[in-house]
């Protein structure tokens, strides 16, 4: 079970409450993630948030820039557009 501290949980709750009505895309982060943090700054929507094991993806904020997919040194971020 992943434990998220109170500040992060509060931030996530705020984001979900104010989420846009339409999300353009999303990504999944695999176990290849080394938690380097390189992807966090690439997202203009702040859809990736620091979390203990690997970044947390806020699907409803993703607007499909995909810069995170390109910058990941381990190929851990998968574009899961349908
Ligand atoms: S760039 Fe890749 S390896 Fe680094 S934190 Fe993001 S998903 Fe993990």
Helix and strand layout, with pairings?
Blueprint: H1 6-17, E1 27-29, E2 48-49, E3 56-57, H2 67-71, E4 77-79
Overview of this structure, please?
With 82 residues, the chain is an alpha+beta fold. The chain has one domain: 2-Layer Sandwich (Alpha-Beta Plaits), CATH 3.30.70. Helices cover 21% and strands 12% of the residues. It contains 2 helices and 4 strands. A two-stranded antiparallel sheet has the order 1-4. Strands 2-3 form a two-stranded antiparallel sheet. A hairpin with a 6-residue loop joins β2 and β3 (56-57). It starts with 5 loop residues before the first helix and ends with a strand. The mean pLDDT is 83. The structure holds iron/sulfur cluster.
């Amino acid at each position: 079970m992943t434990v998220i501290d109170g500040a992060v949980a509060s931030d996530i709750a705020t984001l979900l409450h104010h989420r846009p009505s339409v999300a353009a895309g999303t990504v999944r982060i695999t176990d290849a993630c080394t938690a380097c943090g390189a992807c966090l700054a690439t997202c203009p929507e702040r859809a990736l948030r620091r979390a203990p094991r690997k970044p947390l993806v806020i699907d409803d904020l993703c607007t499909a820039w995909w810069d995170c997919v390109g910058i990941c040194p381990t190929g851990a971020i998968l574009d899961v557009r349908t």
